[in-house]
Amino acid sequence: MKTRAAVAFEAKKPLEIVEIDLEGPKEGEVLVEIMATGICHTDAYTLDGLDSEGIFPSVLGHEGAGVIRAVGPGVKSVKQDDHVIPLYTPECRQCKSCLSGKTNLCTAIRATQGKGVMPDGTSRMSYKGETIYHYMGCSTFSNFIVLPEIAVAKIREDAPFDKACYCGCGVTTGVGAVTHTAKVTPGANVVVFGLGGIGLNVIQGARMVGADKIIGVDINDSKAEWGRKFGMTDFVNPTKIDGDIVSHLIAMTDGGADFTFDCTGNTTVMRQALEACHRGWGVSTVIGVAEAGKEISTRPFQLVTGRVWKGSAFGGMKGRTDVPKIVDWYMNGKIEIDPMITHVLTLEEINKGFDLMHAGESIRSVVVF
Ligand code: NAD
Ligand code: AHE
Ligand code: ZN
């Protein structure tokens, strides 16, 4: 079949909206009509050529929601007309990682996913006879896409696509990092670095679990008001304080935070987030994705004296099991999504979504097909 898609033909070039060819679902695969997709900073990072796994030409996008229109042979867990969210962290429920009960990082199809192809080693997409690669196993910037059945989470049918799509990455990542990775406790002091589409979800997750002080740190002053909407109690712009940010935060938290989160992808900030933790027990969780080649460092003494450095992918949440629950949390009013969707765009306007993100003017732009 033919489908409209925003194709990244080259790094650092705007996406082009073209009609591509899409092969139908093979064994264990489903055809999904994407109804809406968010634009996450990770899409921009790959488009900017900063992802060591970036492949071009490809269809980016990994924050979608849609409807299953057809299923391939052998598909058992979902059916035509089911409403689903594509999963860049699938859940096969059979691999060592899934069976361990210790991680959400299913390994069943990670190797082919990283190479931009389906589990059988081939792509379903092409344009003028040339292969177009998949991205993060999702490629939600295409109106129709083929996905492995283990890489879709079935969600309730009354959830609006233009909001539920955000659970395909940002909401689940931010809220889950609090509830599933760091396991923030009621009464804790929390510091969140970077108040974008991920950081604001960390803030609302911290509010949900009953954190006490929730300090937001951002170099963009306009993010202060955004943080307050979702439970931030204090704001710091590190470019506008006397002295260094770590000492400033330690003073604000009576010796250091119980939990800190990096939602910037900046390795200097990651170090600050670790060092702003309380001696003896503070836990710092890296969520931000750093440019290829960047490394983190700190004095080992920071760890010897009890600070813990953790990382979180997709909020530590299992795709097929936990994503439908996050959607329920939204539908039941436990968490908010609507105010974070600052811009709704057509597919033709998708490059504007990247511009708004780079200018710090959006929280989430959502493309509606
Ligand atoms: P965003 O662009 O919406 O927000 C980033 C925020 O960080 C902005 O408000 C920006 O002003 C702020 N910032 C930048 N530099 C800063 C600094 N030096 N100090 C303080 N604040 C600073 O991006 P997003 O969509 O929220 O994504 C944030 C990061 O999380 C990205 O690196 C993205 O790739 C990553 N991410 C990771 C996961 C995961 O599973 N681990 C999932 C989604 C996104
Ligand atoms: N491909 C990059 C790493 C990118 C990365 O860390 N991705 C996060 C999700 S970001 C979503 O916005 C993730 O979940 N990673 C786990 C995984 O298995 O990819 C690189 O450095 O090569
Ligand atoms: Zn993302």
From TrEMBL:
GO terms for molecular function: alcohol dehydrogenase (NAD+) activity; S-(hydroxymethyl)glutathione dehydrogenase [NAD(P)+] activity; zinc ion binding. GO terms for cellular component: cytosol. Residues 197-329 form the Alcohol dehydrogenase-like C-terminal domain. GO terms for biological process: formaldehyde catabolic process. It catalyses: S-(hydroxymethyl)glutathione + NAD(+) = S-formylglutathione + NADH + H(+); a primary alcohol + NAD(+) = an aldehyde + NADH + H(+); S-(hydroxymethyl)glutathione + NADP(+) = S-formylglutathione + NADPH + H(+); a secondary alcohol + NAD(+) = a ketone + NADH + H(+). CDD domains: alcohol_DH_class_III. Residues 27-152 form the Alcohol dehydrogenase-like N-terminal domain. Keywords: Metal-binding, NAD, Oxidoreductase, Zinc. Its cofactor is Zn(2+). Its EC number is 1.1.1.284. The keyword Iron does not apply. Belongs to the zinc-containing alcohol dehydrogenase family. Class-III subfamily. This is S-(hydroxymethyl)glutathione dehydrogenase.
